[in-house]
Design a protein that fits this description.
- By secondary structure, the chain is α/β, with parallel strands linked by helices.
- The chain has two domains: 1-68; 81-282, 3-Layer(aba) Sandwich (Rossmann fold).
- It has seven helices and eleven strands.
- It has helices spanning 46-59, 113-120, 142-163, 181-192, 213-221, 236-251, 271-282; strands at 5-9, 16-20, 37-40, 77-80, 85-88, 100-106, 126-129, 169-179, 199-203, 225-231, 255-261.
- The strands form two sheets. Strands 4-5-7-6-8-9-10-11 form an eight-stranded mixed beta sheet, with helices on both faces. Strands 2-1-3 form a three-stranded antiparallel beta sheet, covered by helices on one side.
- Strand 6, helix 2 and strand 7 form a beta-alpha-beta unit.
- The relative contact order is 0.11.
- Mean pLDDT is 79; it is low at 1-72.
Amino acid sequence: MGDAWLVLCPRAPVPRLSLCWPPASACQAESVGQSWGVVRAGSRLAPWAVVLLLLAAACGGGRPVSAPVAPVTPGTAVRPLPSGTLVLPRGYDARGGRRYPVVVMLPASNGTAEAMWRAYAPADVIVVLSAGLGSPDDYRTNEEWARTIARYERQLREDLAVLARSGSADTARVVLAGFSMGGDLAWALALRNPTLVAGAVVMGSRMSYRAQQGDLATLALRNARFFVIMGGMEDRTRLAGAQAALRLLESWGLAHGYREVPGLPHLRPPEEVFREALAFVIGDGAGR
């Protein structure tokens, strides 16, 4: 696996320390608009250097250092965004000219986007992990759910605005993905942001949000794609809601897929099912 790298970004809104593996270019100056301190963890001076970096971050604004998620596989790198966290794919090289699809993962109730990423870890895409821990309080009332949608919408727009300036993110291919509450967020945000989002993978969700006709028309013009995954033992309300949403997509001529996993209750679908859905929505096999 080679030497590991400890990476600190003291100029981020919240300074962060993370661990990643070579290539070193995936850990250094190609971070989106940030200055990174990089220390090879195998160095004899690494413990002292890490302490100095932490002190520099603490003194440079008085904000605490937070640790973002650790990479799932060697070759990935983790970097902060204005709201969420950016995960770069294995072999990422900002100078190579390649443009990667963007997958925005949203948290389930009582879960995080990080947990979803650890379950699926799609390849050959840039992943944005939305900030926040999902909670039943987020949808306790219709008013609270509206505020929750607005909060995650602000995050989405802030993070995509930064990625649009990076050069390596294909912001014409932004896909939202989530399970349960995260799926409902993915569905709602895709409908509300038809010029920013190219589609969504929705899993185990009621999909009750309804868009303005103009937004649906824009999604149709942009050839947006959706994939819905439900467990065969899901709650009937969720199944009925998903079927109603599929009929809506059909009525507007939006490309969509549906997969019902036999015997699956209200749990995340298997990895291979998610990857199939993501490849359909992206449209070129990326994410497998």
